[in-house]
Amino acid sequence: MYNTIMPLSKDELLPFLCSISEQYLTGIAIIDLEKNDFPFVYVNSAFSTLTGYHQEELIGKNIRSLTGKKTNSRNEKKLFDLFSKTDPFDQNIIHYHKDGTAFWNHLSYQPIKDSEGTISYAMIHCKDTTEQMLSRMLSKLEHEVYIELEENGELKDILQLITEKVERFYIQDIYCAIHVLQQEHQLDAIASGTLPLSIIQSIQHVKMNQGMDFNQNTIIKDYLTIQNAETKKLLTKYNISTCWSKPIYNHEKKLLGYFSIYIKNNSKLREIDIDFLNKLTPIIALSMKYVEQKQDLKRLAYYDISTGIPNFNYFYTSLVDWLQESYVGSILLIQPSEYSNIVDSYGRKFGDELIRQITCRLKSMEGINKDIIYGRFSSSSFILGIKQTNQHLNEIISDLLQVTSAPFTIAGREIFITLRIGVSYFDESLSVDESIRRADIALTNANYQNVVVSYFEAETDEKIQRELDILNQLRYGLKNEEFTVHLQPKINLETSEIEGFEALARWYSPVLGQVSPVEFIRIAEQNGKINEVDNIILKKVLHFQYERLSKGQKIVPIAVNISPVHFYSDTFVNDFISLVNKYNISPNLIRVEVTESVELFDYKKAKEILLELKKLGYESAIDDFGVGFSSLSYLQQLPFSEIKIDRSFINDINDADMHAVVKTIVQLASNLRMHVVAEGIETSEQYDILQKMGCTTGQGFYFHKPMPLEEAEKLL
Q1: Which Pfam families does this entry report, sorted A to Z (predicted)?
Q2: What is the spatial distance between Cα 473 and Cα 490, in angstroms, rounded to a whole number?
Q3: 488 near 481, Cβ under 8 Å?
Q4: How far apart are CA 645 and CA 666, in angstroms?
Q5: Which of 13, 343, 524, 552 lies deepest, with the highest CB count within 10 Å?
């Protein structure tokens, strides 16, 4: 969404925003920025589903309708301050459903200008991010627990830290406590948040023992047997209704204790609460076994369990230390190309084994010393940091490649592998995350270009960002039919008459401007959008033909390009025929062009599709002939009626060798009774040569550039 949707007046803008908001699957609220309290003027159905409020309950109210006890007042004030500044922003805040349950709400705020440039309304995209925020909380808590273990190590202090943090930052309004199973099989409450331990100790909880069935997801509802009237008063004072207890087990399935949450105000225990408890108790288990497991905790924090090598956290922390000491150097992100095949063939543990063996060889090399840090980056890669000069970097890369000179033993077999390496640098001018991101981009580029080593280049980063922008806008472009058709005439080289057109897709994005087909077609193919692009162009061509037929005007065949990805889809023929029949266009007025490419590999299926089209009266052409794969071999197999010689051949037609190639193609097409079209004719000399060769049809700038439909009509 952008701050100028389209040139709409203020009165037109709100209905338009309401209309498009209702099409979103995410919650959207529209607020009035001209009123001091910024009331809702519209909320979509997804917003109602998210909050539990009906639309009519929220109209006229504002975002404060969703606040509750756990909502941070400073964040709420900041929210309204940002509303008044009318700049886009994102913010996380605790909000409440209608039933009183809290959730983390991620707000994306976007003010909207009308045609006068005035900002009267804003759209707020809302998303429930409770799960992500609780996961973030757990990660932070785990980190703080580890620090406390290192600095203090007293079990009570560590468990007290956990209860206080959970109470303070958890989304529900709760108390919590931790009971520990003592040697005499007694459960003692030794830590709580703000609820006094004396109250917890006076409550008779459900007894748990070592003989209970072990279940990772067991959670017990404790109805809190009251021992005396005084305890009952205390429970009433603290507004405690029920208690839920999660057993804490170690890896040997031994009961260590349980973590209890005391629910206030009769709130329900939700799935997300259960998931949180399931993830929290292993952290507590590790803390409770601190004395004998301190080394295990350190290993879990800094080492990869599957391989035993340092993990990404170790690498990241070490690199931060280096930067604080003003070191500079390089980051190498390394991936064995065969990892996925090994996992698919033998299982993930053998993929882990491959990473382990590579790093073991790495450690045994003479060049590996204190000036190098490494760790596992992802399941299929590991990362290396080097304090180095350029010469040192080159030596390390050479040593890395030497590691793969001998086979690796995987699942009892000897396997040779190859590496892909992405390289970036680090220094104080870049954050650790940015340096690593650049190495990741370089590795992606190494895989894309099929090279061993790729160094980060700003141009590659810009290209990736450009592709992301195009992909994002492609959805809007398809939805709003921003794609248009340009027609390039096909000229009879003997009579100079127009004997047909080729339809070419063009896209002007209000955000990106004119986007080249070279860019958007590839991205559309990669992301499953090319069918929609092809169909939009086909519809516009059919409509053009239909209009001219209706008016009794001159009409010539138009060829429509179909991506090989679309061509092979199961519904292509039926969809194509249905569209053509809808406009009642004769088959001889529409032709199918398929670009020769590596995708055109399934000769059997291609032949079936082309024969079916031919049976129905549709001619087909192979576009850009000569630049793909096995061209001559499949010409005899596939029933194309037309060959279009790629412009790269025509550009070099004065070259003797290329002249011979083009002449051969023309003769071959004639022998196979196929029509031949020369693309990219730009000079009279090329025109004359092709005429003498017997090429009957051509297109190119020498005759006409691709033109909008209106100009094509005038030309006809």
Answers
A1: EAL, GGDEF, PAS_9
A2: 32
A3: no
A4: 9
A5: 524
Q: What is the pTM of this model?
A: 0.46
- Using the CB atoms, write b or e for 617-650: b if 16+ within 10 Å: ebbbbbbbbbebeebeebbeebbbbbbbbbbebb
pLDDT tier for residue 127 given thresholds of 50, 70 and 90: very high
Q: Which tens digits make up the pLDDT trace of 488-540? A: 999 999 999 999 999 999 999 999 899 999 888 888 888 889 999 999 999 99
Q: Is the dihedral of CA 167, 172, 175, 181 positive or negative?
A: negative
Alpha helices (H) along 620-655: 631-635, 647-651
Token digits of residue 352? 């882990």
> In terms of Cα–Cα distance, which of 354, 356, 358 is closest to 345?
354
Q: Which of 95, 50, 100 is nearest to 70 (CA)?
A: 95
3-state DSSP of 400-426:
HHHHCCCCEEECCEEECCCEEEEEEEE
**Measuring CA to CA, which residue among 485, 479, 435 is closest to residue 461?**
435
In percent, the amount of the chain with pLDDT more than 90 equals 38
Which residues are CB-contacts of 504 (< 8 A; sequence separation ≥ 6)?
Answer: 485, 486, 487, 488, 517, 561, 706
Q: What is d(CA 545, CA 543) in angstroms, rounded to the nearest whole number?
A: 5
Q: How far is CA 102 from CA 69, 133, 269, 353, 430, in A?
A: 9, 12, 12, 44, 38
Distance CA 557, CA 697 (A): 14
- Identity at 267, one-letter amino acid code: S
The HSE-up count of residue 501 (CA atoms within 13 Å, CB side) is: 29
* Dihedral sign computed on CA atoms, order 86, 92, 94, 99: positive
- CA 711 to CA 713: how far, in whole Å? 5
Across 383-407, average pLDDT: 83
Whether residue 95 contacts residue 105, with contact meaning beta carbons closer than 8 Å, is answered with yes
CA nearest neighbour of 544 among 531, 533, 530, 560: 560
Q: Which of 625, 684, 665 lies closest to 493, judged by CA?
A: 684
Closest CA to 558 of 611, 508, 477, 504: 504
DSSP for residue 225: B
Q: Say if CB 558 and CB 487 are below 8 A apart.
A: yes
Report the pLDDT value the prediction gives residue 631, as an integer from 0 to 100. 53
Interior angle at CA 500, CA 499 and CA 506, nearest 5: 150
C-alpha distances out from residue 330 to 76, 319, 441, Å: 43, 11, 14
Q: Provide the pLDDT for residue 210.
A: 47
Least confident of 119-133, 531-545, 619-633, 698-712: 619-633
Indicate if the pLDDT at residue 154 is higher than 90.
no
Q: What is the pLDDT of residue 504?
A: 94
> Would you tell me how many other CB atoms lie within 10 Å of the CB of residue 139?
12
Instruction: Please state, in angstroms and rounded to a whole number, the distance separating the CA atoms of residues 109 and 90.
Output: 6
Element housing 234 (H / E):
helix 229-237
> How far is Cα 271 from Cα 87, in angstroms, rounded to an integer?
36
Question: What is residue 170's three-state secondary structure?
Answer: coil
At 104, list the tokens: 């983390």
Burial of 225 (C-beta count, 10 Å sphere; 0-12/13-18/19+): exposed
Q: Residue 364, Cβ neighbours under 10 Å: how many?
A: 9
Q: Count other C-beta atoms under 10 Å from residue 215's C-beta.
A: 10
Asked if residue 19 lies in contact with residue 45, where contact means CB atoms within 8 angstroms, the answer is no
Beta strands per DSSP E along 272-396: 329-336, 372-378, 381-387
Q: Is 74 helix (H, G, I), strand (E, B) or coil?
A: helix
Neighbours of 433 (CB within 10 A): 9
Task: Rounding to the nearest 10 degrees, give the CA dihedral for residues 671, 674, 680, 686.
Answer: 40
Residue 642 near residue 677 (C-beta atoms within 8 A): yes
Q: Quick one: how many helices (H) and strands (E) in the chain?
A: 26, 27
The Cα 189–Cα 575 span in angstroms is 69
